[in-house]
Amino acid sequence: MKRTNFVMIRIVVYVAMLIPALNQSVQAQAPGQGAPKMGQGGAAKPGAPGPGVQATQQPMVSCQRGGLQHAVRLYLAAQAKGDISDIPLANGFGYQENMQPADIKTGFLTKPLVIDKHLSLYDDSSCQTFTEIIVTDKANPYVAGIRMRINHDKIAEVEVITTTTGQWLFNADNYLKYSMEESWGPIPADRRNTRAELVNAANAYLDAFLEAKIDLVPWGYPCVRVEGGATTATGTDADTCEAGMPAGVNIANRRFVVDEVIGSVVVWCTFGAGGPGGMTGAPDTHLFRVENGKLRFVHTLTHLNMSDYSGPTGTNVDNPAPKTKMQPKQ
């Protein structure tokens, strides 16, 4: 009997200690006191945060892929408005247009543009981005490349290469049309090429220009090159990016932005190393898509006035032989 009384006393004490805690829990869940909003039937609304959950953190510029994507979103918004005030620029920020120092406050980014299509690479190994934009506005057409370098939470460097009316094979409408026929989506993780493989493929292609040695280029079939406003595509599985490649040109001053996720690498370079002759030293970008280790798409932007070049243009007017020079697609 004594043992039974002792057990009962312990139960009473435990319940007395538990009641205040239960009251506090009920008060914390009372309407208007921080409880989640309730829908019909007393269930929390889908997506409603739980007690004490703070608002989602605001996106910020960083070297992670999400932070690089945010930097590009800020650039695109700025270009659409022609207003750079929302771009977080680092101390000592650097800006160039067509490989010449320029003032970002009066430069290309202050042009409000309606961008018809854009394609971006995100390189979290080197904290860089590359964005190709296509603008078909009849008054101010452009195809341009924008490279940005990120330093922690700021944009430390922006470079722009522009092409427009009167420049190398330029035709923004055609560039848009041909680009819309391509797929640059993510490559499954188990089929992606490494950073080194992507850079090697780009270098092999550009090295072939100097001495016309193409044996090391990882040619894919079909492979389509879009250049200014011309394309090598004929719509068959035999399409090749080898068509129209010149010899004797040193593709120099190479820098790389690499995105393994979409199997792409862009080379920021000069078409020529500074010697005499046409197209020498022209600001240039070569953008590559590589699938299963083979070249699939090539985009070329060259900042060069057609009037400044006296060599073949790759059109039927200058050279009717389709096997040696790029032809404009009809």
Structure description:
With 330 residues, the protein is α+β, with helices and mostly antiparallel strands. Among the domains are: 65-164, Nuclear Transport Factor 2, Chain: A (Roll), CATH 3.10.450.50; 189-308, Nuclear Transport Factor 2, Chain: A, CATH 3.10.450.50. It contains 4 helices and 12 strands; from the N terminus they run H-H-E-E-E-E-E-E-H-H-E-E-E-E-E-E. It has helices at 2-28, 65-81, 172-180, 195-211, and strands at residues 89-97, 100-101, 117-123, 128-135, 142-151, 154-163, 224-227, 230-231, 251-259, 264-271, 282-291, 294-302. The strands form 2 sheets. The chain has a 6-stranded mixed β-sheet with strand order 2-1-6-5-4-3. A 6-stranded mixed β-sheet has the order 8-7-12-11-10-9, with helices on both faces. It is globular. Mean pLDDT is 83; it is low at 1-47 and 312-330.
H/E order of the elements?
A: HHEEEEEEHHEEEEEE
**Overall shape:** globular
- Secondary-structure-based class equals alpha+beta
The CATH topology of the domain at 189-308: Nuclear Transport Factor 2, Chain: A
Strand order of the largest sheet: 2-1-6-5-4-3
Supply the CATH class of the domain at 189-308: Alpha Beta
Q: What is the β-strand count?
A: 12
